[in-house]
Design brief:
Strand order of the largest sheet of chain A: 6-5-4-7-11
CATH architecture of the largest domain in chain A: 2-Layer Sandwich
Oligomer: homodimer
Number of strands of chain A: 16
Structural class of chain A: alpha/beta
Radius of gyration of chain A: 22 Å
CATH topology of the largest domain in chain A: Nucleotidyltransferase, domain 5
Chain lengths: ~375, ~375
Amino acid sequence: MGFTDVRATNLAVVLRHLRTNGPSSRAAIAASTGLNKATVSSLTSDLIDHRLLRETGSSGNRIGRPGTAVALDGSAYAAIGLQVAADRLTALAVDFAGEQVLLWHRALAAEGGRATGEIIALAQRTATRVRQQGRTVLGLTLAVPGLVDEDGTVRLSPALGWSDVDLRGLVASSLRQPGLVVTAANQAGLAAIAERRAENMIFVTGTAGIEAGLIVDGKLLHGARGFTGQIGRFALGPAGSPTLHDLAGIEPLVRRALPGFDPDSLTDLSPAVEQVIVQARAGDAAVLTALRDTGRHLGQGLAILSNLTDPSVIVLGDHYAALAEWIIPAANPELAGHLLAPGGAELVASELGLHAAALGGAISHLERVDSGRSMPITA
Amino acid sequence: MGFTDVRATNLAVVLRHLRTNGPSSRAAIAASTGLNKATVSSLTSDLIDHRLLRETGSSGNRIGRPGTAVALDGSAYAAIGLQVAADRLTALAVDFAGEQVLLWHRALAAEGGRATGEIIALAQRTATRVRQQGRTVLGLTLAVPGLVDEDGTVRLSPALGWSDVDLRGLVASSLRQPGLVVTAANQAGLAAIAERRAENMIFVTGTAGIEAGLIVDGKLLHGARGFTGQIGRFALGPAGSPTLHDLAGIEPLVRRALPGFDPDSLTDLSPAVEQVIVQARAGDAAVLTALRDTGRHLGQGLAILSNLTDPSVIVLGDHYAALAEWIIPAANPELAGHLLAPGGAELVASELGLHAAALGGAISHLERVDSGRSMPITA
C-alpha cells in the first residue's frame, strides 16, 4: 500500500460505488459519493493504471458520450474459495469484477488421512490455473463445516470427523505467493456473505449437518470465539433427546424417505437427494411424508432463530434449496405458529447450489479490497 | 449542541475516559487519549463550566499534586429508567456520575386499563423528584417485556397482556421538559446494557416471562425490527409442545414447587419465590426437584443460545438470580453437554435484583452523552 489513509479510503469509496452500481461515469461517481470531480478523475486514473478499473464505452444506464464510463476490471486479479464438505471439494474463483472464472468439483473422503493432501493439491492447482489466466490471486479462503478458530484451525468438525487440524497453515505454506492472503472460516458464515440480501438475514446449510450463518445488524455474527451458528445441536430435553439435525437434517430425511437406500452410499448425499426428488415428483406417499416432517421440524428450528434474532430473510441452502418446493410450504406454518412477532422472516431457497460457501469465501477477498483494508496496489 | 463535530467528538472522548478510568489528571487524560494537553485543558474547562465535570483533590490512583484531577460531576444531571413488569413498576435514577439517586417500587396490575395512567404518574413524580434534587433530567427510558418497536410502541407483550400501546408517546407528552429524551425498549436488552461485562454476553430475564438481551460483537443485537431475544418461545415440536417458558419459567416452577400455593396470588411472584427459597433451604424434596428440573431445562435453552451466538458470559437475572444456588449447578452440566464448542459461556447470577432493566434504561442516556450523540451543552 503506497497511499495515505485518506487516499486509500477514497479509492475504496470509488470501488464500492462501482461494485454496487455497475459501470458509471466519473461525473456520476462524483455526484453519488460527494467526492469532487478532479479527485474522482485522479482516483480512477490510479485504479485504471493498477488494473482494478477499465474504461468502458457504456455507462450502463445512459445514452451518449461513449467512453466516459468506468467499470471494475476483471482481467488482472482473482480470488478463490475452496469449500470442504464431507463428500466433496469445490474450488471456485471470481475475477475482481465478480465474474466466476473457475468452478471445479472433486470427490473427497474427508475422514481419511489423505483429505488434507487433496485439499492442498486442489488449492495449488486452482491458484496455478488462475495465474495461467493471467490473474494475480488476491486471496484464498477455505470454507469448512464446524468450529474454525481465528487462526484458521479447524477445532472440531463432526461432519468431517476432524479435530484440531491447522488447515489454514497447511494450505498457506503450500502456496508461496507473497501477498496472497489465506484464511479459513465456517462455511455457513461465508455462504451468508455470498447470499447477503438484507441487514438481518440467515443462511441455513443443508448438507451433512445443519449450520446457520447470521448477518445481524449488517455484520456477520462472530461471537466470543467465532463458534456461532451451530443450530443442528438445538434440542430441548436431556442428553440424547432428538436434535434439530435428527429431526430435520438431510441425511435423516434420506434415511426416512428411502429406507431401502444403501446407508454406505450416503457419504455422497447428492444421488440420494436426487432420488428423493424423483419419488416426490411421482407422488410417493412415504417420501412426501418424510419431506413434510422435515419441513415442519425445520420450521420449528427456524422459529427459534427468528424469535432470537429477528431476521427479515432466511435463505435455505444446499440440499434444502433443491427440496424447497416441499420443504418451504411445510416449514412456513410452523415458523409462523411459533413466532411471537407477527410478520417475521421470509423463507426463500438459495440459487447458489452446493457452493455458496466457496463463492462467499472468494467474495470476502474482493470485500477486503473494496473496504480499503487490502489494496493490491504497490505504487 | 453549539460545538463543531470535532469538538463534540473530543468532549465525548474525555467523558468516556473518565467513565472508564475514574478521576484522572489532565495529563493522564492527554497521555491516554492522544489529545494534546492544551486541548484537554480546554475541553475539561468547557465540561466543568457546563457541570459535566468537577475538579477533585484526588486523582484516585496517584499521590501528590492535589487539585489537578477531574471527575464526572453528578450534581447537575440525572437519567431515569422506569421498568414495567406484570406485578410492579420500578423507577430508578442515576446522576451523571452513575450514582443511583432514586429507587422506587410500586405495585401494579398491568392488565388493568389503569396501568398506563399509573406509569405516567410515576414518571412525572420521578422527574419532579429529580428536579427537586437540583438535577436536569437528561432522559427517561421505559423498559417493557415483549415486542417494542422503534417508535416506542409496545406491539405485543404477553406478560403485560398488552398490544399496540404507544407507551413512549403517552409518557413523552406528559413530561413537558424541552430536550428530555423519552424512549421505550425491551427490558432484556436494557438489562444487558446494565450488566455489560464482555463483548459477547447474554442477560436472561426471569420474571413473568423469559427473554434474552444479547450483546454480540460489542453491540446490543437489534434485528430487523428490534424484536429479538424471545427465548421463552423456544420449542421443538408441533404447536402446543412445551416451550422453554413452560419447562423453565419462574411461574411454572412455583406451580410445581408449591402445589398448594394460591394461583391468584401469582400476580406478584416475589412472595412465592421467597417461599421456594425457604423450603429449599429446609431441604423440601419436592421443591428441590422442581428447582433441579427448572435448572436442567434452562441449561438446555441456554445451550441453544450458546451454540448460536457463542457468548463468553450468560447472566441470569431477576428471580433466577435469587434461585441461582440451585439453578446454576443444575443448568451447568446440561449447558456443557449440549454445546458443540468446549469451554463455552460462564453462567453467573445478576447482582442487580429485579431492576437491572431500569438501571440499563437510565444508563443508556449517560451513554448517549458519552458517545457525543446528545451533549447537554448549549454554548
